[in-house]
Design a protein that fits this description.
By secondary structure, this protein is α/β, with parallel strands linked by helices. It has 2 domains: 7-185, Rossmann fold (3-Layer(aba) Sandwich); 192-275, N-(1-d-carboxylethyl)-l-norvaline Dehydrogenase, domain 2. Helices cover 48% and strands 14% of the residues. The chain is built from 12 helices and 8 strands. The protein has an 8-stranded mixed sheet, with helices on both faces. Helix 1 crosses helix 2 (38-57), helix 8 crosses helix 10 and helix 8 packs across helix 11 (240-253). The longest helix has 20 residues, at 38-57. The structure holds acetoacetyl-coenzyme A. Acetoacetyl-coenzyme A (CAA) binds at residues 51, 54-55, 58, 122, 145-147, 149-151, 193, 196, 228-229, 234, 238, 242.
Length: 284
Amino acid sequence: MSETTTRVAVFGAGTMGHGIAQVCAAAGFAVQVCDPSEAAREKGLAGVRASLDRMVAKAKLSAEQRDAALGRIGWGGDVGAAVDGADVVVEAVPERVELKRELLQRVDALAPATALLGSNTSSLSITELGAALRDPSRLVGLHFFNPVPVMELLEIVRGVRTAEAAVDRALAFAAALGKTPIVVRDMPGFATSRLGVALGAEAIRMLEQGVASAEDIDRAMELGYRHPMGPLRLTDLVGLDVRLAILDHLHREVGEQFRAPPLLRQMVRAGKLGKKSGEGFYKW
Ligand code: CAA
């Protein structure tokens, strides 16, 4: 893959999109980020810059490597221009099935027929997203984790109609990015989100019931179970809206154990989305 992939298109300049763009650029690929919002593109660029600066400060990267990576990323709002000549396309737009399906259909029509298409969905069905495509065999789940430059895992999701060759290309893409892959079946929430939101939702229910403060619930898992970050702080990092969307989807697909806690829904309605909005279970 590293020999044949030279161009990557990333849709969505948000938390995940700009992180994915960064790791692709750091791996030497030419990257086009596409987002219709200029403000989102500017915020995405600032996020990439801040992350690369941090790596330079930690001597994980030289200033020249940072500048070269930044120079490999182009930012725009036009779908056709973004996928022009792309070898790999990764969509990381908000977790809404219609939005992703519509975008993937446009990408399918405009991208080179040989391009691998990946969705960074946290929980939606790759089979369903692929159903409207002319060639569903080239769609895989490419599920990255936040913060993308730090987290080692790439969860590759095989839809019912995903070709084995597409999975092989996704594995090679993971290797080129320095990520460790797992390949999972297309089941709601895959291997990661299903467990991740179960813990997060239970922590929110515990907060609702006054079991302990947010700080102490988090401290319990950090010190008692050695999680790098407690489930409420992690929900802030991921985005409360993202976790609510995953829970609503799993509630419909899997069952009652994934019913979203009312507190979570209220906080999302109030615009308390976590780190990205400045407030969630914590002030950032
Ligand atoms: N860019 C570059 N480097 C970064 C970074 C970023 N955005 N964020 C952290 N780092 C680096 C730091 O510079 C630091 O480097 P050194 O080891 O060289 O010092 C290292 O990562 C650790 O960071 P910190 O020392 O600042 O803080 P920490 O030790 O508490 O780690 C953390 C921060 C990596 C975020 C850690 O708390 C962690 O792993 N948390 C859990 C994250 C997690 O579970 N993510 C998955 C969420 S689910 C998801 O994303 C998928 C989904 O579908 C929603």
